[in-house]
Amino acid sequence: MLTNREVYHAVLRAADGTSRTLEEYLLALWVLGRAERDRDSLPPERFAMLLTRAVSAPVPAFDDSWRTAELGLSGSESGFDAWERTILSQIADLRDFAEGPKQDYLELGVEAPRRPDAGTRANGPIWYNHSVPGYLECAMAGTLGGWDINDGIRKPVSVPTFHIYPEPDTIGPLPLLTWPDMTDFLICGQEYE
In this structure, what are the phi and psi dihedrals at residue 17, rounded to the nearest 5 degrees? Predict the structure, then answer.
């Protein structure tokens, strides 16, 4: 069984130096995830494989209807359906960023420039991570842990911080990952600092 540290390093190695935009990466990940939709959970090895393969897997075309689709979560969606609505919402946001006005200081958190005709989305509007490596590192740190201060990637801060999710602080084997776990991963990729 893989540990969170092994997955953390495998995912970051795969993302390091990619020329893919985050939109392209998430489109590829969406297709790979759809192939697993009939499963209730994924072993950590399979989850890590999806994340690393999305760096080089074929990228499907963007569907502009996602920008106006009703992708919000009413509470009745669960499992894969909630994951899919979340990733499609993020992809729509990234297209809005690409076609919207240029924004400065993205790393400080900016609101997606959603169009007036945008449908409801499953994710919040604030984005902190706009690159594949940054998104994946924050997604891993925020949901699965596995990082170490000696990695030199995460820096301790001297001011109080607020964690959206309780950050795992131990190194250990990962359990099977459910679709809600993988949805949290997507949200942390977008919002975690």
Answer: 80, 5
